[in-house]
Design a protein that fits this description.
Layout: E1 3-7, E2 10-13, E3 18-25, E4 33-39, E5 46-51, E6 58-60, E7 68-73, E8 78-83, E9 92-101, E10 106-108, E11 114-119
Parallel strand pairs: 2-11
Antiparallel strand pairs: 1-3, 3-8, 4-5, 4-9, 5-6, 7-8, 9-10, 9-11
Amino acid sequence: QVQLVESGGGLVQAGGSLRLSCVASGRTVSFYNMGWFRQAPGKEREFVSAITWRAGSTYYADSVKGRFTISRDNAKNTVYLQMNVLKPEDTAVYYCAVVRNIATMEAESWGQGTQVTVSS
């Protein structure tokens, strides 16, 4: 079973940047599709971005397209989310997960999450 630990969240002003990291342990995630999701207060968790195991394909929610970039380093068992031009509406807890179905973004093995707060 894989364990995921997210880090890199924090408080940033609108227009700023953050880089989230997700480190996997327990087993390699090199052959897994991986994704980032987020949950804002009072809202359901939503898809943010995903990357296939070979990093050949990336996927983004429309709300973050052009601002966020997902990447992975399989040698480090780590997935990243570079977030630029952050907006207050990006405020949420961000979770890393294994994406079991890239067509539906069904995910599992969730991390504990990292808080991102964007002030206006």
